[in-house]
Amino acid sequence: MKNILKKYWFVILIGVLLIAGVVYYSFGLSESGEFDTLKGKTVNNQDVLYSFNGEDTTADAFYDELYESYGENSIAQLFVREVTDQFIETTEEMETEAQTNADNVRAQFEANYGTEADSTLLQALQQYGYNNVDELEQFFIDEAKSLSLMTTFITETKKDVYDAYVAEKNPRIVSHILIQMVDPENPTEEEAAKLEEAKQALLDGTSFEEVAYTYSDDTSAESYGYLGFMDLDTPYVPEFIEAANNTEAGETSEWFMSDYGYHIIYVNSTDVNDFIPESGFSTALAEFDEDMTGSVYSEAIWAAANDLNVEFANEELELSIKESFGLGGTE
Amino acid sequence: MKKLLLSLITIMAVLSLSACAVDGNAEISNPDEALITIGEDTITKGDVYSLMENESIVPIILNNVNEKIFDQIVTLDEETIAAIETEFNETITNYGGEESFLYTLQQYGYPDIETYKQELYNSAKASELVKAYATDNIENYQTEYSPKMIQTMGFSNQEDASKALELLESGKTFEEVATEMEYTATIEPKLATNYSTDIPSVIIVALTATNETGILPTTFANEDNSIYYVANVTDIDVNNFTDTFVEMLSADSTIATEVIVSYYDSMDFHVYDQKLYDKFLAEYPDYLVQD
After folding, report:
1. Contact at 8 Å (CB) between B203 and B220?
2. A86 CB near a chain B CB, below 8 Å?
3. Distance from CA of B261 to the nearest CA of A (A)
4. Which residue from B minimizes the CA distance to A40?
5. Is A13 part of the contact surface with chain B (CB cutoff 8 Å)?
């Protein structure tokens, strides 16, 4: 025995140390209450999630139940992320911008929610299919990639359609100030004075946004006059459509009259990159293109997926994902 | 020697495993099963399950368990069933038929009309469950709530209230005084408890000090001195107004939770997954009844 101890003393020492470590670790967990928090249960080789009145509900059964309500949407979220991630390369610019955005959001959440910042941020991220607050940077990278994928799809795959759409419908993003009048032909003194004040403020160099916020009677005043995307088919009054149509990006229209009062329009942008985040644009382009059965976004994702060799576990799953993209029955 | 080393390694492995095993982590059986392969990456069942777990799963489980309780404990009578069916059919008619009603329901996240109907039944069963429990335990609640039936009249000035009190103390009934003073609001007896919010707190305090029926010997002003009351205790025997009292108790969400939780306890609700346990702890701790 002595010889054995002499010969293998090092192995035995390591073994004893390991056992001591394990015992110490277990004791620590037990003391802290972590070790005895919860015991799992298995039935027929399946993990039990909970039981009630002697009846076990397994994780598998619960998966099936959740899948009925949330499965399609969850898979679609994962599918979009994976396709976008593989189709668009992550650039340094994306990473830098994502880091800046994430830092800003974290600071904002900390200022607004204090100690609850992380949990509130997690809840927000979970709605987009992310499981961890550390994924905030990834969220912004994915957003940038998604935008890039859409731009690529529209300006390359659908270039002809987009050019024809721009030529025919003259899309733009606009802001607006309205000085409302009961009878614009015969404004009251108060209405006329307000109009003059707004005009003068713009002439004095006050920004369009600030004048909109201060003077506009339109609901867009709260958003500093921002109305967003429009094209020739947007259901605005004809005077509005005409003025917007005749104003270039970065310019302001003349004041003009409609049945609502006096308006002035600022054209924020006519750039496709600014159109993409606007839901109205996606709908308008999809309506313009007879070949599109889903939204521009769905078409863009699916077009990218087709380039990436996608295999579904079964046909039923493929159909349900296509349906969730509004592409049911198409190749 | 080999045996000794082997034994040592086995002991170490067993101890290590027992210490590090992730207990209370309920996983699906086949988390690595590929659902979609995109290029070299796969979306697995485990990925989907992780994402779905972010949904509000605790209310889903509570709903499942509650339904089991209702099915086992509560049987609705024909009258209640008929009332539910009538309400259901009228709702559909009011929404212009099944198709448009389904469209509205879907905006609120209902998958189909049957789920809505089931909710009506569950709601009625929950109410019955709480009523039955409240009736069985009415003595306990009586001590806590001190239920009494009272009549009140409220006036916009102290003079009218004092005059009303004088008339009542002279022997006239509440009804006679109401008529004489042209008081038009209802003077029907209503339930007053220690927790009533529709009765000024000064009256509630006065009621705790009385154990007999009759006119309270003073007038009462509400908090901003805008209404002056006189009050009459018409009944202090809860046996005479059990239904009213039980009805009030069954509408109390704290009591409803207390009742449901008592069944979770007696029918042994037990969570085996740490993540789910933590969610219950954060959102619905009352329902965690396991040791």
Report:
1. yes
2. yes
3. 12
4. B24
5. no
Most confident of A17-31, A266-280, B146-160: B146-160
Q: What is the 3-state secondary structure (H, E, C) of B172-189?
A: CCHHHHHHHCCCCCCCCC
Q: Which residue has the higher pLDDT, A290 or A59?
A: A59
Helix (H, G, I), strand (E, B) or coil at B22: coil
Is there a contact between A266 and A175 (Cβ–Cβ < 8 Å)? yes
Amino acid at the residue A147? L
pLDDT at position A4: 64
B191-231, pLDDT tens digit by residue?
A: 999 999 889 999 999 998 888 999 999 999 988 899 999 99
**Kind and range of the H or E run holding B231:** strand B228-235
Q: Which 8-state DSSP code applies to residue A154?
A: I
- Interface test with chain A among B11, B25, B273, B284, by most A beta carbons within 10 Å: B273
Count of beta carbons in the 10 Å neighbourhood of residue A280: 16
Residue A265: is it exposed, middle or buried by C-beta count within 10 angstroms (0-12/13-18/19+)? buried
Flag whether pLDDT at B270 surpasses 80.
yes
Q: Contact, B287 vs A50, CB < 8 A?
A: no
Kindly state the helix (H) or strand (E) to which residue B190 belongs, with its residue range.
strand B190-192
Using CA atoms, how far residue B261 sits from A68, B168, B245, B264, in Å, is 28, 47, 21, 5
pLDDT at position B13 is 53
In chain A, whose CA is at the least distance from the CA of B19?
Answer: A26
Q: What is the ipTM of this complex?
A: 0.74
Chain A interface, best mutation among B6, B28, B287, by max A CB count within 10 A? B28
pLDDT digits (tens, 9 = 90+) for A1-60: 666 666 666 666 666 666 666 555 555 444 444 445 689 999 999 999 999 999 999 999
- Calculate mean pLDDT across residues A232-241: 94
Beta-carbon separation of B29 and A7 below 8 A: no
CA distance B130 to B143: 18
Alpha carbon separation from A21 to A18, A37, A290, B203, B226 (Å, rounded)? 5, 21, 70, 68, 74
